[in-house]
Amino acid sequence: QVQLVESGGGLVQAGGSLRLSCAASDSRFSINAMGWFRQAPGKQRELVGTITSGGSTNYAGSVKGRFTISRDNAKNTMYLQMNSLKPEDTAVYYCNAVPFSWTWGQGTQVTVSS
Questions:
Q1: How far apart are the C-alpha atoms of 13 and 98, rounded to whole Å?
Q2: Phi and psi (nearest 5°) for 7?
């Protein structure tokens, strides 16, 4: 199983920015499409956006134009640049392969204050 470690979360004011990272344990990362997910308290995990192995991206409507996904296959790492953050973006953020899943990591908490 590929191990995934998310990092970069924190507390930020509304309108601020954060950059999350997702580090994978081996090079199987580079050949797989990946996704960022988030889970807010009391809600189901939702897909934020995806990126193919070649770098094509898709986003949920709620984050389109504010979030950008990128990846560095040489480093087995994916990123989520989050700008213009809103309180409703508060959640634990996870990464995983799509459409199938490796073992989920611990996630990273993002809290946006109003």
A1: 31
A2: -155, 170
Could you tell me the two tokens for 2?
């590929």
- The per-residue pLDDT for range 1-33, each reduced to its tens digit, is 899 999 999 999 999 999 999 999 989 999 999
Tokens 């189901």, residue located: 44
DSSP track, the chain: ---EEEE--EEEETT--EEEEEEESSGGGGGS-EEEEEE-TTS--EEEEEE-TT--EEE-TTTTTTEEEEEEGGGTEEEEEE-S--GGG-EEEEEEESSS-------EEEEEE-
